[in-house]
Amino acid sequence: MSERTTLASAAVCAGVGLHTGARVRMALKPAPVGSGIVFERADLDVDDRRVPARREYVRSTDLGTTLVNEAGASAATVEHLMAALAGLGVDDLIVELDGPEVPAMDGSSAPFVDLMLRAGLKTAPAPRKAIKVLKPIEVEEGARRAVFLPSLKPAIDVEIDFEDETIGRQHFHFEVTREAFADLVAPARTFGFRRDLNALLKAGLARGGSMENAVVLDEGGVANPEGLRFADEFVRHKALDALGDLYLAGAPILGLYRATRPGHGLNAKALGALLADETAWCWETLRSPAVSLDRLVRS
User: What's residue 246's pLDDT?
Assistant: First the structure.
């Protein structure tokens, strides 16, 4: 993935927001080289409807990542789409929304991957640059810990530890390539506990949540009739979230991100710490060839 990439044609999907419960239509549109990823709220009448997918626009990390611009335009729960863009190596894209939140689809990144592969990816004769990690950068939040480490390849290493015996302690590591992401990470769904539902609803969250877009756990374990897609689907989804949150750097990160008990807040804090230390990273032009997309297109 050494050249900047956008979509070959527009792609459209619709669904409900995981937290708002509002139905939203999303259109992914090709963008010129150098545009970056930009959300655009088509339903708002404000001075600026465009919200760049960048770390400095993060305003909330409460069970999802929300971006807000100075005019008040927002895009919520962007992490699953951002993970799909990072995993496929999409650099330039307009994400048009007619509502406040990215549609949840099935709670994973797989529907977004399928949507974009069907639309086709288009490269431009412009070099793709990455943020190369030069030295360790570590942050902590109580028992949560995250560190960026120098690495020859982009990779994510996540460990979680839940008291719930259905989840328990899980560990997952993957190198960020198109194939690894599409096969091993993208299908992993978000998850939640039935016992927390009433509190979430009172907080204005999870209004669109269901077993159609999340793995639901209750006293008997996984409540979804179809079960899990992976035995360790929970930690794989945490790796998915981390990849999406970190792509708010505005470029891929050439380094290892290792996190223990990560969440959106910790991911944002770690990325902010990395970008704030100009001695911890530099720009590097990517020169590795792109993997063929033929095998990734799903029937």
Answer: 98
Query: Do the beta carbons of residue 258 and residue 147 sit within 8 Å?
Result: yes
Q: How far is CA 193 from CA 45, 216, 234, 242, in A?
A: 37, 6, 12, 20
Q: With contact defined as beta carbons under 8 Å apart, do 166 and 217 qualify?
A: yes
Task: Write down the residue that tokens 């109580």 correspond to.
Answer: 142
- Taking residues 3-32, report their average pLDDT: 96
Catalytic residues: 264
Amino acid identity, position 34:
G
pLDDT at position 291 is: 47
Provide the pLDDT for residue 297: 52
- Closest-CA residue to 271 (of 241, 295, 227): 241
Give the Cα separation of 97 and 89 in Å (integer): 21
Using alpha carbons, select from 182, 165, 212 the residue that is nearest to residue 115. 182
**pLDDT interval class at 89 (50, 70, 90):** very high
State the Cα–Cα distance between residues 185 and 191, nearest whole angstrom: 14
CA distances, 164 to each of 138, 220, 234, 235 (Å): 28, 11, 12, 13
Torsion angle (degrees, nearest 10) of CA 225, 227, 229, 233 = 130
Whole-number Å distance between alpha carbons of 176 and 186: 11
In the chain the domains, ranked by start, together with CATH numbers, are 3-127 (3.30.230.20), 130-285 (3.30.1700.10)
Residue 115 near residue 123, CB atoms below 8 Å? no
234 CA to centre of own chain: 15
Residue whose C-alpha is closest to residue 241's, from 40, 46, 83: 83
Model confidence, pTM: 0.94
Instruction: Tell me the residue type at 156.
Output: I
